[in-house]
Amino acid sequence: MLATLHVATEVGDLRIHSAYNPNQPTMAMTIPDMVGKTTKSGRDIVMGDFNLHDPSWAGARFRGDDSKVTAPARALRDGMANANMVLATPPGSETYKRKDGDRTIVSCVDLCFVSQSLKNCVKSCQVYEQNPWPDSDHRPIRTILDIEAIRDSSLRYLYEQTDARRFNKVLASELPPLDQLKTTDLDKEQVEHLARVVISGLQSAVDTTVPTKLANPSPSARPMDLKALEILEGDGVASTWPETIAPSGTPANLRTRRRRAERAAKKKKTVETDRHFIHKLGESTDGTWKVARLGLLRTKPRIMLNMPDLEDPSDNIYTTEAEKQQHILRALWKRIDELEYMVTVPFPTLKPDRQELFMDISMEEKEVRYLIKNLRRKKAPGTDMVANEAIKLGIDTLTPYLTIIFRHCLQLGYFPTAFKTALTVMLPKPDKESYSSAKS
């Protein structure tokens, strides 16, 4: 069994693989396959209960000579060595201990391997003496890495909960007087300035009035028990293993039963509410399609896609986000050096005797209002981070200002710089063997 956690860190994406090898005749891990899957990125941590014995990690606890090493144990030892993985667990660590009659069986089967690139980041890897699970025959191992994880602090703006009147009041306070603008013929510089002021006003109104929450908050369901957390953090616990904090208040077994009953009742209520919602959804004319789509969305893997390290034909590796962005830019847009500072679009030379067709360049407020009302919701904003929902919220205040900007743009044949910048989102192509290329 194998599970992988992807963590974005200051040194790039980290992959933490948790492995369990039952090592039973009918249930055994294919070691070469496991090694191949868990050592590809170059920043891997492979840890878990391997249930295998070898002198390289068992040390003096290994019983017998090298000829006693099983084929799976040799495959793990040689596979990790060939993949440049380093054993972080001190050889001979007492990771497993149980009584068998009058004798005590001690072995080292819970291991931690790290990529060569992470070797110097390992501050410690040792058996955690303050064991919060004293009844288990396996003792926990704590590995401390000197690596800072990147905290995702991106926000989700809750536009549907925004006070529209307050939003428009803040927006109006950021914009110039409208009466003066309506009687002024703007030149290109003034159009540029007004576009920037409108965008700045929208940003200020959003930051001031729109409530937010974390786009990817930390899991809140079933938090760790406070006593267990105190033990793991080493606060106020006895130093001798396997002592734990003495129970206080309600006995632990009663607290456990009560919590299980509370969780079961909450789960039952959630299931009943969900069934009622699906039943009501299915009663509509197109209910079958809606329910089918809901099922499709719910069964999608809840995995945040991370772009792996990129590699160019010269075997250069791009690890950080900034390096990846620059590499993609250079790989997909070959003439980037010529276009980097271009602010005008070159038009073809037109014949002076060409036929000129009439075009209505007038713009009325009702047309702008119609366009704003028909903006699609839940679309990604541009670099100014002004979403369509914000423009729709400020429709009453924005409409006359945008009408003035659009009208003068048509009259001047000018396109403001503020409207020229867009975001390009890279999506992975499906079913690729590798995504290390910028074009994948």
Automatic annotation (TrEMBL):
<dbReference type="InterPro" id="IPR052560">
    <property type="entry name" value="RdDP_mobile_element"/>
</dbReference>
<dbReference type="Pfam" id="PF14529">
    <property type="entry name" value="Exo_endo_phos_2"/>
</dbReference>
<dbReference type="InterPro" id="IPR005135">
    <property type="entry name" value="Endo/exonuclease/phosphatase"/>
</dbReference>
<feature type="domain" description="Endonuclease/exonuclease/phosphatase">
    <location>
        <begin position="14"/>
        <end position="141"/>
    </location>
</feature>
<dbReference type="GO" id="GO:0003824">
    <property type="term" value="F:catalytic activity"/>
</dbReference>
<protein>
    <recommendedName>
        <fullName>Endonuclease/exonuclease/phosphatase domain-containing protein</fullName>
    </recommendedName>
</protein>
<dbReference type="InterPro" id="IPR036691">
    <property type="entry name" value="Endo/exonu/phosph_ase_sf"/>
</dbReference>
